[in-house]
Each structure stands twice: as C-alpha cells, then as structure tokens.
Amino acid sequence: MGKAADISSKGLINLAPDAWLQWVTQRPEVVAKEILGSEFHWISRETDVLVKAYSATHGDFLVLNELQLRYTTQMPLRMRAYAALAQERYRLPTYPVLINILPPASTLTIVSSYEQEFLGLRAIQDYHVINLWEIDAEIVFQQPLPSLLPFVPILRGGGEVSVVQRALQALRADAQLNQLESLLAFFASFVLDTPLVQQIMRWDMAVLRESPWYQEIEQRGIQQGARRQLIRVLEQRFGEIPHEVEARLESESVEQLENLMDSAIAVNSLDEFVSILM
C-alpha cells in the first residue's frame, strides 16, 4: 500500500516551499529555511503553517500562512494573536499571510488588518490577504506553483474542463504529486458537475476525509444549516433582517446558533434579540 497523501496545508507548502514563499511575499529572493512546528496548540489548526524564511535584504524572518476555506469575522483577531505569539516565540519579524480559498458570504467584507481601540490604546496588526478566486490559474503552470495545483478549479479561469485536465496531467506526471488528485477532484466539484469530475479523475473519499478542508466543509454545512434556520425564524417573527445581523451570525458556532434559536423564539422584538447577540 502506498504512503498516504499529506493534503494538509503543511504538506502542500512543503512540496515547493521556496516557490510558495516567493509567491506569497512577491519577493523572488526569499527562500525557505525551515517549516516550524506549531507551539500554540490552543489556537493552531491544520491550516496554520509557520515557515522560517531568509532573504539577503531582510535576513531571517517568519512567514505565517493561514489557509482558510472561507473568511470569517474571527480571522483578523486570529491573525493578530498568532503573529504576536510567533514573533514572541522565535524572536523574529513576522509576515502574516491569509489565503482565502473560497469566497465568503456576500454579507462579509474581507479586511487586511486587525484594529482595536480601548481606553485610548490602539492594537493594530496588518496582514497580507490572497483570495484564490482572484488568482489567475495560468500562474500555477507558469511559475510553477505545485502547491496550488489542487486549487486550480477555483482559481480565476481554472473552472474550464481543459484547465482542470492540465492540472490533473501535472499531478499524474510527478510521483510526489499524484496522490493529490483526490483534493483536485474535491475542488473541481465546486465548479463542475460531480459525474463529470468522477469521469475524468479519481474520487477517493477515504483520502478526502483526511483533508482539513473536507472536515471544515462538513462542519460548515451543519453550521450554515443552523444559521439559515435561525434567520428563517427571525424573518417569520420580525420581517426583514438587517445585513449586519446576518453577518454577525456568520461567525457563530453551531452550539451558539442553537442557543440563539431559543432566544429568537423567546424575545419580543428584533432589537431585544440584537442586544443578546451583541
């Protein structure tokens, strides 16, 4: 039996770490020295990857990579927390990068900094944002960027059958990459009919279930179902719901949404519900 594919963020970046860092920093002189293990278990997930990098201009520094399936309102605070902890742990300047894989809900605005002011004190953390749906699929083949091959279908211009087949051929031509075919199929299913995806490539659910993105999709499906049900109850009771309320519900966990459902049934007005939500 062949070795199981590593389709985590760390496994993908490790395929060509220099090319990855040069792409996310847009600096061709940057090279990877080491992919660091996470020391921050209380906030770290499989989608967080910390890389020690080097350039002749800037010396040693850290590149914090957060690959997020869909952007949420919690991301700015997470980027601030992880960047600060990484810099404290390794005593190196940190370049945080947020890579959003799929577009968020239309009610959310993606921001590239965390900002808070409290009692006259300000906390600010900037970070670089890359939205994969805005990236031209051709870049993956030209540079090349093997770490992005599984994401080709959801890149700009990558949803055509011919482009997906080019990505598939690139994966199958390299023994190190061919086990990523299931992940390519997974993202192809967002833009192509599932029977067509199954026809042109392997669809290994056992491999996909090991993917952090599959697990997040599964959890997000439960979360979105609970969120839609809650919004439906609020609309039936109070009429149209403001976008800012819907956006606030986007980041709530399934357990929180279930508790809010009880509140939505019990309150006498939308303002009362919003006061509980805030």
Strand content: 15-25%
Residue-averaged pLDDT: 85
Structural class: alpha/beta
Number of strands: 7
Structure description:
By secondary structure, this protein is an alpha/beta fold. Helices cover 44% and strands 18% of the residues. The protein is built from twelve helices and seven strands. The protein has helices spanning 9-13, 17-25, 75-90, 138-142, 161-172, 181-188, 194-200, 205-208, 212-238, 243-250, 254-266, 270-277, and strands at 31-36, 48-55, 59-70, 94-102, 113-118, 121-126, 128-131. The strands form two sheets. It has a five-stranded mixed sheet, with helices on both faces. It has a two-stranded antiparallel sheet with strand order 5-6. A hairpin with a 2-residue loop joins strand 5 and strand 6 (121-126). Helix 9 (212-238) runs parallel beside helix 11. The longest helix has 27 residues, at 212-238. It is globular. It starts with 8 loop residues before the first helix and ends with a helix.
What is the strand and helix layout of this fold?
Blueprint: H1 9-13, H2 17-25, E1 31-36, E2 48-55, E3 59-70, H3 75-90, E4 94-102, E5 113-118, E6 121-126, E7 128-131, H4 138-142, H5 161-172, H6 181-188, H7 194-200, H8 205-208, H9 212-238, H10 243-250, H11 254-266, H12 270-277
Helix pairs in contact: 9-11
Pick out its properties.
278 residues, 12 helices, alpha/beta, globular
Provide a brief overview of the structure:
With 278 residues, the protein is α/β, with parallel strands linked by helices. 44% of the residues lie in helices and 18% in strands.
